[in-house]
Design a protein that fits this description.
Largest sheet: 2 strands, parallel
Radius of gyration: 14 Å
Helix content: 55-70%
Number of domains: 1
Strand order of the largest sheet: 1-2
Strand content: 5-15%
Order of helices and strands: EHHHEH
Distance between the termini: 17 Å
Structural class: mainly alpha
Shape: elongated
């Protein structure tokens, strides 16, 4: 799974879906928490900046034998 900081996700959703902050917040509250989703995932990539993204992608590709 790919995750990003909460505020980044909120801003992206507001822009993409033309929703208000409270609407996005309500949507997120109805979903599994980040911790629950990460616990279920086989691999987690944190999309919180470009400096670590290449190394995370390389580790993922290596883990799946790509």
């Amino acid at each position: 799974m790919v995750t990003a900081p909460l505020q980044v996700r909120i801003n992206r959703i507001m822009k993409r879906d033309k929703l208000t902050y409270p609407e996005v917040e309500a949507r997120i509250k109805n979903q599994l928490s980040d911790e629950e989703r990460e616990a279920r995932a086989d691999f987690v990539i944190k999309n919180d900046g470009v400096e670590h993204l290449p190394s995370q992608l390389f580790a993922f590709l290596k883990a799946v034998d790509f």
